[in-house]
């Protein structure tokens, strides 16, 4: 059997910098743990636009379809702000999600002990926080038709369509319940069923799926209340299940609670391929951070932990994922901090590359 | 000239309880300040459904169109959870917003000095916070067609339509810029222009309107980042301008930052009527709180401050609004607390009615 394959798409801004650190980690697992990967690299986002005139070349798309896992850095930046919508860097990422059919986006929001002081929230509200947001990623208003800007009378109208079929809701719901079974057996589903019919269907299907998981406690919450509860008492949640647009906003809100945006990974999973592995893309929750790009200041941990999720969800190496996560915790406990993590004066920040080296050393 | 008219719609849950306190305030302004109002009362939400089989009777709608201001308590509750979508309590409120064409929803998020300790957020992040969210309230995905649950192949699909015309965006934007002129002259507009064409049009129109307000500094932010920044550093904002759905979520998030959800009022304003006053509805941001309804525990301040907004925006009584707001601040500074405001042990909560009396006494 050939080595499992990984396609690295560093993308824009701090993407390439943090990905360099992930490469060190991949090398370490090959040398020290006998986990060899076939690694290739390509362009996405603004970087792809600069070369090909579009944010994802067809060849790159084809490659992504044929690897065991894609690791992506970040896309976008002010240099591309004035591009036409159809070639914006973000469209490269959205094309990957859609064509790989990565319907289940897992976004853990975890508060690292060593960083609890760093949250905007009071310590007792976030200490020990460990929730998982499951965001539907291939449908909803991100992809629904009709969409566009149209003439209407003597003015224009901007239109997007929120659209969910029963099967789209069902498969996302299943992945949330499966996760809950391996966690604290609670799912809270968030929508606006009081205002949107798509939310009514969402609630109905999720309730039906729940019947297959009698051990899991299901609750429903309106998404506005969900945002409020995330700030008020986030530890009430275990798994949060929500749609593409609400998931975008709620997961950023949850990420910020932990005070560790530079720390948070994500996995986007699709259906199993022939070899049994799910289609998968792993990326940090943070963006391309153009303001600090190229300065060696970025925190590579979100991207490193995204690779840990790849070990767990794509390569069935749960123990090795634990090892990598433990190494990150140790480095933090030792007080190693990139600039984004400096809660207090008097601590000298380390560079992106020093942080990567520290994690390797702790492995 | 007849006295200005107010229609009171107490609604469901704690709505009637908090409205009783507002009536005390209205009476005080009549007796002591010579501000006489013609007050009538009617049903909305579940209370209207119980009587008429729908959440807003046509007669009530007609009355609302003909008064100078509507004061609404809250709608909804578990007793109505299984009702058909078309007669849900919320539909009564949405009908009022839509038919009165209340396109500009003002939601201040203010941290009261006496309550800064009560926020989930660290004190320095929220102390002195005073931002204003302007939420477009009559369009977007709340009202766009087509909408519904349809058969498609052998399954169903839930559809809603996000839809904004240039003129809808423009009038909401104008109201935000007008407010900013009387505040700190900053507007941050939030959408998802990187993903939604309706967001692209939104950004374009807001930018155009900004040209009429050269003194106001305009910035744009993706709504997911907006949620994050609200938790990270809310004091960076002055006026936030956003659409109906994002506004729903972001304003609940902002409300929670202040730790004073039971304290926050809102105004929903439309075009000027013949008498020059805007169409207007005032309501607390909090909901019907069925868990504490009927127990005399509810905090009436959000509803009282909504009446203060009515004094300011409908009745041109800015000084009297200031007086009422100052009375609320004084009561809080004196340590009077309803149960929702009990951050620390050893404080005895007052009842809804005691809180109302305390505000009257402080006037
Ligand atoms: C970059 C952007 C298209 C993307 C999204 O809106 O999904 C991002 O915000 C995210 O959450 O992954
Ligand atoms: C009650 C509900 C229809 C309403 C909304 O979604 O607008 C509420 O959440 C609000 O924010 O006023």
UniProtKB/TrEMBL annotation, chains A, B:
Substrate binds at residues 97, 107, 135, 224. It comes from the Bacteria. The keyword Transferase does not apply. Its EC number is 1.1.1.85. GO terms for molecular function: 3-isopropylmalate dehydrogenase activity. Mg(2+) binds at residues 224, 248, 252. SUPFAM superfamilies: Isocitrate/Isopropylmalate dehydrogenase-like. It is found in: Cytoplasm. Pathway: Amino-acid biosynthesis; L-leucine biosynthesis; L-leucine from 3-methyl-2-oxobutanoate: step 3/4. Binds 1 Mg(2+) or Mn(2+) ion per subunit. It holds the Pfam family Iso_dh. The keyword Metal-binding applies. Its cofactor is Mn(2+); Mg(2+). The record marks 142, 192 as: Important for catalysis. NAD(+) binds at residues 77-90, 287-299. Keywords: Amino-acid biosynthesis, Branched-chain amino acid biosynthesis, Cytoplasm, Leucine biosynthesis, Magnesium, Manganese, Metal-binding, NAD, Oxidoreductase. Residues 5-359 form the Isopropylmalate dehydrogenase-like domain. It catalyses: (2R,3S)-3-isopropylmalate + NAD(+) = 4-methyl-2-oxopentanoate + CO2 + NADH. NCBIfam families: leuB (TIGR00169). Homodimer. Belongs to the isocitrate and isopropylmalate dehydrogenases family. LeuB type 1 subfamily. PANTHER family: 3-ISOPROPYLMALATE DEHYDROGENASE. Catalyzes the oxidation of 3-carboxy-2-hydroxy-4-methylpentanoate (3-isopropylmalate) to 3-carboxy-4-methyl-2-oxopentanoate. The product decarboxylates to 4-methyl-2 oxopentanoate. This is 3-isopropylmalate dehydrogenase.
């Amino acid at each position: 059997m050939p080595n499992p394959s990984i396609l690295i798409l560093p993308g824009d801004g701090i993407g390439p910098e943090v990905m360099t650190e992930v490469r060190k980690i991949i090398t370490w697992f090959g040398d020290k743990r006998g986990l060899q990967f076939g690694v290739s690299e390509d362009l996405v986002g603004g970087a792809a636009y600069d070369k090909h005139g579009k944010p994802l070349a067809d060849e790159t798309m084809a490659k992504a379809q044929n690897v065991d896992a894609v690791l992506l850095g970040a896309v976008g930046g002010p240099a591309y702000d004035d591009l036409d919508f159809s070639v914006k860097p973000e469209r490269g990422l959205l094309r990957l999600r859609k064509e790989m059919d990565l319907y289940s986006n897992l976004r853990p929001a975890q508060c690292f002990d060593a960083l609890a002081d760093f949250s905007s929230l009071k310590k007792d509200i976030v200490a020990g926080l460990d929730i998982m947001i499951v965001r539907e990623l291939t449908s909803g208003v991100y992809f629904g038709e009709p969409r566009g800007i149209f003439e209407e009378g003597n003015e224009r109208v901007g239109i997007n369509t929120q659209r969910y079929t029963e099967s789209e809701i069902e498969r996302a719901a299943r992945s949330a319940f499966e996760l809950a079974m391996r966690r604290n057996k609670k799912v809270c589903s968030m929508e606006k069923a009081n205002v949107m019919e798509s939310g009514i269907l969402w609630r109905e299907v999720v309730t039906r799926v729940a019947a297959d998981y009698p051990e899991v406690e299901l609750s429903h919450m309106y998404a506005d209340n969900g945002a409020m509860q995330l700030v008020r008492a986030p530890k009430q949640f275990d798994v949060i299940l929500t749609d593409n647009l609400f998931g975008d906003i709620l997961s950023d809100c949850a990420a910020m609670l932990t005070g560790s945006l530079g720390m948070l990974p994500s996995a986007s999973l699709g259906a199993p391929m022939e070899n049994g592995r799910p289609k998968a893309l792993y990326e940090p929750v943070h963006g391309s951070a153009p303001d600090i790009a190229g300065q060696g200041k970025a925190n590579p941990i979100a991207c490193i932990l995204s690779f840990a999720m790849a070990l767990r969800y794509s390569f069935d190496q749960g123990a090795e994922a634990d090892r990598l996560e433990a190494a990150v915790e140790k480095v933090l406990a030792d007080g190693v901090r990139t600039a984004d993590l400096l809660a207090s004066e008097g601590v000298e920040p380390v560079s992106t590359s020093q942080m990567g080296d520290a994690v390797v050393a702790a492995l």
